[in-house]
Amino acid sequence: VSLQPDLFKGIQSSDAGVRCDSLKELASVSTDVTFAQEFISRDGHLLLVKIVEDSNDNVIMTHTLTGFMELMDHGIVSWENLSSVFIKKIAGFVNAKSTDASIQQVCLDILESMVLSSHSLFLQVKQEITMERLIAHLQVSRSLQSSDTRALLVLQDMFDFLTKKNVRQYIYKNIIHSSGSVQDEMAHYLYVLQSVTLNLQEPRMRTPLDCCSQEQRDILHGLRQAAFETESENSLSHERRRSLCAKEFRKLGFSNNSNPGQDLSRTPPGLLALDTMYYFATRYPDAYSRFVLENSSREDKHECPFARSSIQLTLILCEILRIGEPPSETGSGYHPIFFSQDRLMEELFCVCIQLLNKTWKEMRATQEDFDKVMQVVREQITRTLSSKPTSLELFKNKVNALNYSEILKLRQTERLHQEETLAPPVLELKERLKPELLELIRQQRLNRLCQGTMFRKISSRRRQDKLWYCRLSPNHKMLHYGDVEEDTENPPIETLQEKIPVADIKGLLTGKDCPHMKENKGKQNKEVLDLAFSITYDVEEYSLNFIAPSRTDFCLWTDGLSVLLGREMSSESMRSELEILLSMEIKLRLLDLENVPIPDNAPVVPKPPSNFNFCYDFSQTEQ
């Protein structure tokens, strides 16, 4: 404090050298809170503001701004008392394309503090400095300079402030619902911010595990101890402890269980894989223990290796989030979830490693299926992120709903789209072909009924059931049936004594609605119920009851009887056959159009010509 009078005189000296030295000394002593309190009590900070507003010397400006920032960091006075001239001057240094790097860095520090201090200052800063100018400080190179980091923090702080005011509404109002170049421009800003922030993890991704590092060895053993309740290792011999560690590292899924660090020597993902595993184990210990113990209790070939899966999953997330890739000049693919979630990489890993275990079980995978499972997990993550979830919880719900069976369905649908079997003109062609193919199936069903089928009679006694045969007459007017011997094959229609006119058939019943199933209620198993059908005839007082030999015969007869009754066929066999016939017919018809894109809509028919006087007149030639 005793230096203060000299400092005050030196700061206001007309001699540029004395003034510069005094400001440099001020910058170093301003870190002392006692000095800062005394200096500010004499309005020394306002003197510095005046120097900033009036001076154009870069060296003086650097020392003045550094001293001012150190004084303000103590929180003795409010940032809100700054003049608009001062704010414009600071913003001018940031906006300038060629400014001393040290000045820009301290100006970005000041801007960050302003943005965080109050809403009114935030609005003033936003008016003076656009996101475009801040992003201009973010280099496209892989290594960030200090000014780049400061610009990133200012930009991030602006978004943090907006988060309190509902950042999601801001993003969708100003970007998604904007139009044209504004939308593209803002999306690019968000993409660059996301890319640069995620790339802060690149050094860890590019660094292999150092087997000599005690800290990294401790993390590896911490993962092992968190998963398994082991006896006190201090009481064990060196060989016994070494054997126990190797056994538990193998259960954790490390390939090299005697030296697990070797598994993390590949870059990428390098140390980032160790970081994500450790984050999962410490942030969600119950889920971590459940994953490891559940798989260590399975057969060796069916266990999902945690460490190997984690390393590969970390690599997949790096590739999906493009960590390590510089932002492109035209990129605009940002993830809204990035702006609502801290530590996005680690939290995504925690959700996805549990998803991986779930998918492994759904696929009933073995060690040989490891690559297939990882391909499915990559697809699950990519498809979910492409739907632009705005929160981690929404991502978690969507990605877990996208199970293995759903992935298979989506792949099938996309394959059909690629084959153009779902193009509107092809669907229209299908509808035109359907009546013809349905008629073909009807004829086949009636022909099958004409051939006839052997059925077993239902008997409540414990003896060999009797057999009977039923067939349709060639003119489709009579159903002939009668008892037959077991070795009879395709009996002539004349040998079947009983017959029912098709015109007298009133209805077709199936399953538990059949009279013979009602009579034996509780005694029939589901297999018999699925094969039972009956026809009612005359005045519905009589019925002819069937138990089909197989599900195929059940479908053939119920379809054929439906045709005789003038009803639609409804069996699963009919639907399958129709789909096969349609697929074959479509492929045959589209053979000549291979590699020719089929338009969704018919070409526009041109307007007729104004006259038709363009036909060649042959009469004149004949003359």
UniProtKB/TrEMBL annotation:
Pfam families: ELMO_ARM (PF11841), ELMO_CED12 (PF04727), PH_12 (PF16457). GO terms for biological process: actin filament organization; cell motility. Residues 215-385 form the ELMO domain. InterPro entries: ARM-type_fold, ELMO_ARM, ELMO_dom, ELMO_domain-containing, PH-like_dom_sf, PH_domain. CDD domains: PH_ELMO1_CED-12. SUPFAM superfamilies: ARM repeat (SSF48371), PH domain-like (SSF50729). It comes from the Eukaryota. Transmembrane segments: none annotated. Involved in cytoskeletal rearrangements required for phagocytosis of apoptotic cells and cell motility. Acts in association with DOCK1 and CRK. Was initially proposed to be required in complex with DOCK1 to activate Rac Rho small GTPases. May enhance the guanine nucleotide exchange factor (GEF) activity of DOCK1. PANTHER family: ENGULFMENT AND CELL MOTILITY (PTHR12771), ENGULFMENT AND CELL MOTILITY PROTEIN 3 (PTHR12771:SF16). This is ELMO domain-containing protein. The gene is ELMO3.
